[in-house]
Amino acid sequence: MPPVIQISGLRKTYRRIARQPHHALDGLDMEVSAGEVHGFLGPNGSGKTTTLRALLGLIGTDGGDMRIFGEHVPERLPRVVSRIGAVVESPQFFKHFSGRLTLQLLAESAGIARTRVDEVLEQVGLRDQAKQSVKGYSLGMRQRLAVAQALLKQPELLILDEPANGLDPAGIHHMRALLQWLAHDQGVTVVVSSHLLSEVQQLCETMTIVSRGRRIIDGRVRDIIDGHSGTRLSVRFADAGELTAASEALTEAEAKVSVTAERDRLLVAGAPDAAWVTKTLADRELYLTELTTESRNLESVFLELTGTAPHEGQAVQVGQPAPQAQESAGQPGKIELPIGGDQ
Ligand SMILES: Nc1ncnc2c1ncn2[C@@H]1O[C@H](COP(=O)(O)OP(=O)(O)O)[C@@H](O)[C@H]1O
Ligand SMILES: [Mg+2]
């Protein structure tokens, strides 16, 4: 079975009057397999909404290849659109209609049985508010109605852009249970974008992390977090000029080790232990002057992965290139940043 979603080398440039063109998608790759809840994770402005809009044929692109259920899109979207439910744009409803009437009209126009309306109202938790007019709905209730609308046609693929936005904790909990039920009991493939790693961690089995329009890493959520959240070793040398050689020595000695240069030190993850680091470096006549351990929280993992971690005295702004380029984009499991230069 082909992947449900397959994107390769997707490019989208927004051309703006009197400003530099903005490369919102810069060769993005993404793959989603059937039956999983897949998180599409990245900081604000990293290109998630742009990608989802492109997939659904809502905007044009400047290059790359996209397939849904193995069919090229947008060219062959008409062949697969009936199998896709999506909430990407913030949906507009007639304010004076009730939730139920809104769905009934949509069901009727799509030739869907009326009984389905009550089913989806129940599923999204709007049964008791179904008679109220949408005017009185909270943002969270509108979000649920939008999901109900997307579920009407019993899609095989459900795409939701930041579904937790506007929901209170109880609403988020309900949405999570609903999406997991859809995936695990109903066999629906679910793609959910988010800018919060903790949210994706609680909801999704697999994820694609994107930053500045490129894939940074993808795979099983647990593997990615485990691979990056362990204790790191911070290593300093008398001469910062030794950082490059030290980084090479460590990564050559052990494939699982990843090294990040940060100003005058190296952050080493995946090393067997501190003694191994000391010995490996000494074998190359590199003598460290300081070795400390530091454990990291989930947030710092995400910041490191997406390269927007603030550097001392220098907060990286959304849309601004971080001082460290993501040279290893698309190489799952290993994040290496270039060393040296003016960092
Ligand atoms: N219509 C547009 N015109 C110009 N720039 C846009 C437009 N839509 C999005 N962008 C820019 O493209 C980048 C990616 O945006 P978006 O896909 O909305 O990111 P995300 O959904 O990950 O927050 C951002 O820098 C955003 O400012
Ligand atoms: Mg967005």
How is this structure best summarized?
It is built from 11 helices and 14 strands.
Plain-language structure description:
The protein has 343 residues and is α/β, with parallel strands linked by helices. 32% of the residues lie in helices and 25% in strands. Strands 6-7-8-3-9-10 form a six-stranded mixed beta sheet, sandwiched between helices. Strands 2-1-4-5 form a four-stranded antiparallel beta sheet. β9 and β10 (214-220) form a beta hairpin. The longest helix has 18 residues, at 169-186. The radius of gyration is 23 Å and the shape is elongated. The chain starts with a strand and ends in a 37-residue tail after the last helix. The model is unreliable at 309-318 and 320-343 (pLDDT under 50). Bound molecules: adenosine-5'-diphosphate and magnesium ion.
The residue ranges in which pLDDT falls below 50 over 5 or more consecutive positions are 309-318, 320-343
N-to-C series of helices and strands: EEEHEEHEHHHEHEHEEHEHEEHEH
The major pleated sheet works out as:
6 strands, mixed
Q: Tell me the name of the CATH homologous superfamily of the largest domain.
A: P-loop containing nucleotide triphosphate hydrolases
